[in-house]
Specification:
single chain, alpha/beta, Oxidized Rhodanese, domain 1, five-stranded parallel β-sheet, 7 helices, globular
Amino acid sequence: MKAMLIAAILVLFGLPPALANEKTVNITAAVKTVEVLHQGRKVSIERNPDPDNMVDPDYSLTSRPCPPYCIQPMQIAPGVETIGELELIDYLKKVGKDFMVIDSRDGDWPLRSGVIPGAVVIPWQELHPAHSDTEKIAETLVLRFGAARQGSLWNFENAKTLVLYCNGPWCGQSPTNIKQLLAMGYPAHKLKWYRGGMQDWKILGLSTVAPKQP
């Protein structure tokens, strides 16, 4: 409402409508929107321009039981880079043959809050041997991540760089996946962690999409 009122005042004082309606909540000072591919369709990432926009109630809680919802460290494992929103957006622009962004959340979280445009939902259990069949995990490594089997060992030379996130600094789902992938031999430099997750993404008013596009 405030944004609409300001725009109306600008028009009243003779400013051009384009200027009056111009968004002022950019991603950076020089970048308004970023276009990425999500399931083969172009999607624009931008920030909600409404100055009265509020974060989803799911992400406004400050006191979750620990365990399991404990504060995660800034570095999840040696050699695994922790990234922020701008770095994540750079990876989203490169999603394809060499890069994949993974939403590790389980249950109805992706349906409730949407996913980051360009990300693929792979619930953390699908990469964990205690919750998934070994052959299904191997299939994901080969067909989705680009790893290769060499007898009983894995070759990750041509595997994708994976960027993983979950619900936020209190969420252990993507950290669990990262540790499991490292245990399988996945190179640390090919694993990136967006620690802020969906909570920080939502707090900044950045775009989300439905997990499955029609």
